[in-house]
């Protein structure tokens, strides 16, 4: 008979870590990553790990507090991720199952699944019924809003890290500047390299169509989030007008919002974010939707756990690679010949460098 594992607590620690490459997007600049490190402690001594990205430092402490409140609700419960999700959804329905609540619940879920995988001595992908295997990855940690010359230089650096694909941030005031940067990078890296671009919701529908048509002959794999993320009707108009595929999804806060996007044919591809979609549990539901719709599904950030999730995603497309948590990790996701190699060790591949955690801890 399987021994029951119970939750002791979910410890949440806020840190702010330096990013190797500051990133300038159409919405602003980011040079440091505010993270909440989560540890799922169990009565069997097994510990699961996960982290959240609070986007802005002002959200760091409230997000940490939300994880702590959820921990108090779950202390003594069995380590059963689906039951954890049900209990938290019931408790926070009146608050709303989005925003900081959704992020915190996703972090709890990821740490719980990691603890469960470790308790079985299995990599997360294998616990979920698959196996760790190489997944296609693109380097997304740079190529922000910058000059064409700087973009060419940075593109070479990103590709030299073992990648055959990279993403360019666009959304400058002058569309011609975006086009010049895309063309300069393409000329420098060649046609064999996969390039995507991301507007970070900077445009109106009309402007997105105009700019998208300017980029249609540049060989881009996708144009990402050209307009407000939840304007699915507008996204559908853009997707219908352009030859280049439209990618959205990092702001889906549940399988329900993803279903709404699919129902309106808002995009050609989807890329849920594991901290917004509901953690591992939410990702599995999203992957089933993508499979049913026959739409290719990529990941957004959180490279370590996302690499495992792509291994069990029927319509797996691309892993978005960033290294924003590396400063507090003792192990790092390996990249080889354009592919990410998920950890073969038990769990999701996240291990803390405790000395670094202490260094970057926010009091």
Q: What is the rounded distance between the termini? A: 44 Å
Assign an overall shape: globular
Named at the architecture level, the CATH assignment of the largest domain is: Alpha-Beta Barrel
Oligomer: single chain
Query: What's the Cα radius of gyration?
Result: 20 Å
What labels would you give this structure?
4-stranded mixed sheet, TIM Barrel, 363 residues, globular, Enolase-like, domain 1, alpha/beta
Describe this structure in words.
With 363 residues, the protein is of the alpha/beta class. It folds into two domains: 7-121 and 354-360, Enolase-like, N-terminal domain (Enolase-like, domain 1); 126-341, Alpha-Beta Barrel (TIM Barrel). It is 39% helix and 20% strand. It is built from 13 helices and twelve strands. It has helices spanning 60-74, 81-91, 99-119, 124-127, 148-159, 175-189, 205-215, 232-241, 255-263, 274-277, 279-293, 303-310, 354-360, and strands at 7-25, 28-42, 47-53, 135-139, 165-169, 194-198, 223-224, 246-248, 269-270, 319-321, 334-336, 339-341. A five-stranded parallel β-sheet has the order 5-6-7-8-9. Strands 10-4-12-11 form a four-stranded mixed β-sheet, with helices on one face. Strand 7 (223-224), helix 8 (232-241) and strand 8 (246-248) form a beta-alpha-beta unit. The longest helix has 21 residues, at 99-119. The model has no long low-confidence stretch (mean pLDDT 97).
